[in-house]
Amino acid sequence: MQRKWMEDVCDTYTWKSPNNYVGSEKALSTSMIGLRIFDSPLLGVADARDPLFEKMKEASVIGQHVLAPTEWLPQAKSVISFFLPFTKEVRDGNKKIADWPSQEWLHARIEGQVFVLELCRYLDSILLEAGHTNLIPATDPRFTMNDKPPTFTSNWSERHVAFVAGLGTFSLSKGFITKKGVAGRFGSVVTSLALTTDVRKYTEIDEYCNHCGTCLENCPVNAISYEQGKRHEPCGAYLDKTAVKFSPRYGCGKCQVNVPCEHGIPVRTNKLMQTIRQSAINFVEKDR
Ligand code: SF4
Ligand code: SF4
User: Fold this and answer.
1) E strand or H helix that includes residue 234
2) Which of 27, 65, 82, 111 gives the lowest tally of CB atoms within 10 Å of its CB?
3) Which residue's C-alpha comes closest to atom 3 of ligand 1?
4) Which domain holds residue 93?
5) Ligand 2 centroid to 242 CA: how many Å?
6) How far, in Å, from the CA of 238 to the mean position of ligand 2?
7) Mind listing the pLDDT tens digit for each residue in 162-215?
8) Rounded CA gap, 113 and 111, in Å?
C-alpha cells in the first residue's frame, strides 16, 4: 500500500464524511448547521519498535502503565498517527468570547472526537482490506483514560505517539504543535503493515514552541505558567465547570486560539526578548 495513496484517501474521506460537518439534529443553533470541523489531516508514521515507545514507560515521561505498540498488537510493524486541524471557522469562533467556549469549539471538541474515531476506523478498514492486521488503541477494551490526579495520563498517549511519528513537538501549554498548528485533534492506528517511517525534524520535546507566553495570557484560570507549563488541576476544574454549563458538551481551548502557534509552527523569538518578557510577567504576577 502506497503511503501517498493512504494520505489521499484519508484527505478525501475527511472532506466527504457527513460526520465532519455539524448536522441539524445536533446543532446548538441554526448558525452551526453545516459547520465543517476539520481541515485535511496530517499523517505521520512511526516504527512500532521505536525505542521512544519504551522510554515512555519511564516515570518522568508517562509511566509503566503506558503500553507499547507491540503490547497492543504483537505483530505491529508501524503506527500511523494523524492530526486533524480545526477549520478557521472553528478557531475564529472560539476567539469571539474570552471566558467560555464558543458553540463552534464545543461542537469541534465533542462531535470532532467522534469523527477522529471514525477516521481511525476508516484507516483500519482500508488496511484490513489490503490484508493487514490492525488495532485502534483508543477504542480497544484495554484502553484506560485517566484524566484525574496524580497521573492525568492514559495508557496510550496520542500526542506522544505523534511526537514519535514526526508530527511535531509539545508546547508550554502542554498542547502539541504541528506544521498545521496546535488547534486540532489526534488519532492513531497500530498496524502489521511495514510502512516507511517519518524522520523527526526536531530533537527537543518542545522545540516548536517559542515560549512567547501568549497561551498563558489567554488562559481564563491562569493554569499555565513559564515555570510549570500547564497545571492539570485548574484546567481540569475549569473544564468541569464548562461540562456543567454546556452539558453534555464541554471544552475551552483558549490556549489554542489567538496564539502564534494556532495554525502553524511559530517563529522563534529572540532569546533575550523572551527573557525580558518572562521577567516582566513574573514581576507583574508577584504584585497581584
Ligand atoms: S502560545 Fe507561545 S508559549 Fe504558548 S504554546 Fe504557543 S508558541 Fe508556545
Ligand atoms: S484549556 Fe483553557 S483552562 Fe485549560 S490551559 Fe488551556 S486555556 Fe487554560
Assistant:
1) helix 232-245
2) 65
3) 211
4) 1-282
5) 11
6) 8
7) 999 999 999 999 999 999 999 999 999 999 999 999 999 999 999 999 999 999
8) 5
d(C-alpha 170, C-alpha 61), whole Å: 12
Ligand 1 atom closest to Cα of 208? 7
254 lines ligand 2 (CB under 6 A): yes
261 Cβ below 6 A of ligand 1: yes
Number of structural domains found in the chain:
1
User: Among 118, 39, 123, which residue's Cα sits nearest to residue 78?
Assistant: 123
238 pocket-lining for ligand 2 (C-beta < 6 Å): yes
How far is residue 107's CA from residue 126's CA, in Å, rounded to a whole number?
Answer: 27
pLDDT at 54: 96
Which alpha helices (H) appear in 33-165, and where do they start and end? 51-55, 69-72, 88-93, 103-129, 158-164
Task: Using the atom order of ligand 2, give the atom closest to the CA of residue 175.
Answer: 6
- 288, part of any domain: no
Contact between 177 and 209 under an 8 Å Cβ cutoff? The reply is: yes
Does residue 162 have its Cβ closer than 6 Å to ligand 2? no
Q: What was the pLDDT predicted at 1?
A: 65
Query: Which residue, chain included where needed, has cell 464524511?
Result: 17
Cβ neighbors of 135 (< 8 A, separation 6 or more) are: 72, 73, 76, 189, 190, 191
Neighbours of 12 (CB within 10 A): 11
Residue 158 lies in a domain: yes
Asked whether residue 287 is domain-assigned, the answer is: no
Residue 137 domain flag: yes
| Cα–ligand 1 centroid distance for 216 (angstroms) | 8
| 183 ligand 2 Cβ < 6 A | no
